[in-house]
From TrEMBL:
Pfam families: Glyco_hydro_43. The record marks 170 as: Important for catalytic activity, responsible for pKa modulation of the active site Glu and correct orientation of both the proton donor and substrate. It comes from the Bacteria. This is Glycosyl hydrolase family 43. Belongs to the glycosyl hydrolase 43 family. One of its GO terms (molecular function) is hydrolase activity, hydrolyzing O-glycosyl compounds. Keywords: Carbohydrate metabolism, Glycosidase, Hydrolase, Polysaccharide degradation, Xylan degradation. PANTHER family: ENDO-1,4-BETA-XYLANASE, PUTATIVE (AFU_ORTHOLOGUE AFUA_2G04480)-RELATED. PROSITE patterns: PROKAR_LIPOPROTEIN. It comes from Labilibaculum antarcticum. GO terms for biological process: xylan catabolic process. InterPro entries: Glyco_hydro_43, Glyco_hydro_beta-prop_sf, Glycosyl_Hydrlase_43_Enz.
Amino acid sequence: MNIHIKNIRILAAFLMLIISSCTSTKRKGETNAPIINPDAISVDVIVPEHGMADPHAWVQNDTVFVICGHDESWEGKGSFRMDRWEVWSSTDLKNWEHHRDILPSQTYIGDHPNCWAGDICERNGKYYWFFSNRNINTGVVVADKITGEYKDLLGKPLLPKGIVPVHPYDPEIYIENGEYTICFGVNTYYMATLAEDMKSLVTEPKAILVKDENGEEVSTDDKPTLFKRNDWYYLVFGSRYAMSKNLYGPYDFKGAFLSGGHTSFFDWHGQKYVLQENHDISAFYRGASLKPVFFNQDESIYIPKYDRMYPAPGRPFEFKNSTMGWKAVNGTNLVFKEGILSGNIKQKNAVIQSAPWLYTDTRICSKVSFKIKNNSDAKELKFAIYTRNQGHEFWTKGTEPIGWNKQQWLTIPISSNDSDFVTYSIDLSQFKEVNERLMQIALQPAADTNSGSWEIDEIMIK
């Protein structure tokens, strides 16, 4: 009997050792696992097909306010032409209300499309929007309410050209213990303390070092953003980030952040979120994504496998709200109604084209499909692409209109006089030349006829 009990005890101890070992192994493998909030909200584009860029958030009375830039046109008339700033708000992160435009003519900028990124904050009952005059300098406007009306505080730049060795633009305001710090610049960031009246700096701008694991300096993008969590300061620039125990650094470069452009962080109902710039219509007619931010156990930022910069990996043209930048070039008109593009054909080889600067990565896209209804005798659809490789002056060159007569056109047989929509597809590999970035596409929806009409439900690059 005692032997039996002893054996049971030995077996129980052995089982406990196995369970403990398994638990220890499991915990060891999961020591850096993040805690994911299943109720966190994600939105691909908070205001679709609008040209919202550089979103900057401020939370007040359970309402999220956003001041953002606005891309002037989806026709890509020039490099990052931004014609105004806009004030928006939401009480649920899903439905957004527009309140006001802030025009460059209301500031020292004058009538120039230079409304680049900024940041919003409150101090002593007034609201301050620090803004970029393109990449030239930084100014500030002030209002009694966050929704405005805003007035130029100085009538000149707060951060003039030459104040630091880099371009003094893309400001970020970080608030801690009643002290307001402005961070700005490109390649190397600078920080300084703002005076209480927000009209000047009370400290000289100090360069902020971001270093890699070998101690080498890391060159940063423009538009820094800052937040603090558990005694760590996070410095985020585009889709990269660094961390430090001190606001003024040095910062240790950590690598990739969530995919996207300029960022703005805020806390909402116990969850940290980021508003992040995307390529909603194109690289020059952008949008803002809302993403939850999660952290690993070692305080680093968790990057989900499914993370992407909208609309990657491809580009959907579903025409839910607008033409999405599509227009007629010749031989037809183009009308948008209830999610459908349509046109009447006036001559053979009538051409319609997408917005330029799609900036779609052809290395991860292989096919284009068209859901079309041919209301004519035409038996052919034709398709052309314009692609470019990234290189020197990529963002400042190539904004002129495309000559589609110089591009290769591929022919796709189609049915005539359709009673319903039909889907066709083509592989990009059929083109003789496909460079890194798909910049624009064009279509002859009913190529071999000079009468009738066409309708398009969607075009998908995938």
